TrEMBL record:
Organism of origin: Geoalkalibacter halelectricus
SUPFAM superfamilies in alphabetical order: S-adenosyl-L-methionine-dependent methyltransferases
One GO BP: methylation
UniProt protein name: Methyltransferase domain-containing protein
InterPro entries, alphabetized: Methyltransf_11 (IPR013216), SAM-dependent_MTases_sf (IPR029063)
GO molecular function terms noted in the UniProt entry: methyltransferase activity
Length: 268
């Protein structure tokens, strides 16, 4: 099963609507907000900064950027017309924000027109990450900042012991929904190859306990992938989903994934 976000324009509208809900729910999670705040705080936004988010989805991160100290204008671009329509709806009344449908690998915006470019949980979904990084470099002013935040998806687990069956769902989600789960580990080299001066990566540990949160969506979507791939039947999928809920209801849930942020600058 291909990564849905990598080919989002061809995903049925009802599934895009569901993903839009997942994106907004994830962005509302206090720990997700904290990780965003931590890495944005490491960027020296110039006064009056113009900021671009590539792969903005429903615009949750772009909305935060629009309200960030020093930011005069925030622009979000995404491949999905459905996400962009939602992003516009959710930011009604915010005067310094705009959204456009665009492919981050070939953007028509002007050279050197942004002070900061943010790519938040998007690059691992892009089959040609170097093309997107080249665009970010072109769009930044000299001295401008690139911030990439993504899951180090290989670390994701809800395991409570060896051969925990729920890990089959985690594995299936990872291979079904993320184009390159290992991207974060080769990202510093890719950013340097695009011309950036790269700062050390920061790891953000995301722990869910004793009840399930975002990682429960991995169980549900992973179980569905296993059914679609003919690996298990529908009853087994329902049993796996029920087991996840049993643990959560009994305060026995433990999920972990490490995210990473990597900042880089275009030379002055
Ligand atoms: C996991 S979502 C993250 C959305 C948003 N950054 C957030 O954190 O809520 C990944 C997003 O990347 C978008 N995307 C994937 N490939 C893209 C590309 N080549 N250009 C622009 N957006 C892309 C998808 O449509 C999707 O909205």
């Amino acid at each position: 099963m291909p990564d849905l976000y990598a080919d989002i324009s061809n995903v049925p509208p009802e599934i895009q609507e569901r993903l839009a809900g997942v994106l907004e729910a994830r962005a509302a999670d206090a720990r997700q907000k904290e990780m965003l705040n931590v890495y944005l705080s490491e960027i020296a936004f110039p006064m009056g900064a113009r900021v671009l988010e590539i792969g903005c989805g429903t615009g949750a991160v772009t909305r935060t950027l629009a309200g960030w100290p020093g930011v005069s204008e925030a622009v979000g671009i995404d491949l999905s017309a459905i996400f962009i329509a939602k992003a516009r709806e959710l930011s009604k009344g915010v005067r310094n924000i705009s959204f456009e449908i665009a492919d981050g690998r070939s953007v028509s915006l002007a050279d050197a027109s942004f002070d900061v470019v943010v790519v938040h949980t998007t690059l691992s979904h892009v089959p040609e990450p170097k093309e997107l990084l080249d665009q970010a470099y072109r769009l930044l002013r000299s001295g401008g900042w690139l911030a990439v935040f993504d899951g180090d998806y290989a670390t994701a687990t809800v395991s409570t012991g060896d051969a925990d069956p729920l890990n089959a769902c985690i594995d299936a989600f990872r291979s079904g929904f993320v184009h390159d789960p290992w991207l974060i580990r080769r990202l510093p080299a890719l950013m340097a190859a695009a011309g950036f001066s790269v700062q050390p990566a920061r790891s953000h540990g995301y722990v869910e306990e004793p009840q399930a949160g975002y990682l429960l969506t991995w169980i549900d979507r992973g179980a569905d992938v296993l059914v679609q791939n003919g690996r298990i039947g529908g009853d087994m999928a329902e049993a796996l989903k029920a087991e996840a809920r049993r643990r959560s209801a009994g305060n026995e849930w433990f999920g972990h994934i490490a995210f990473a942020s990597i900042l880089a600058r275009k030379a002055v």
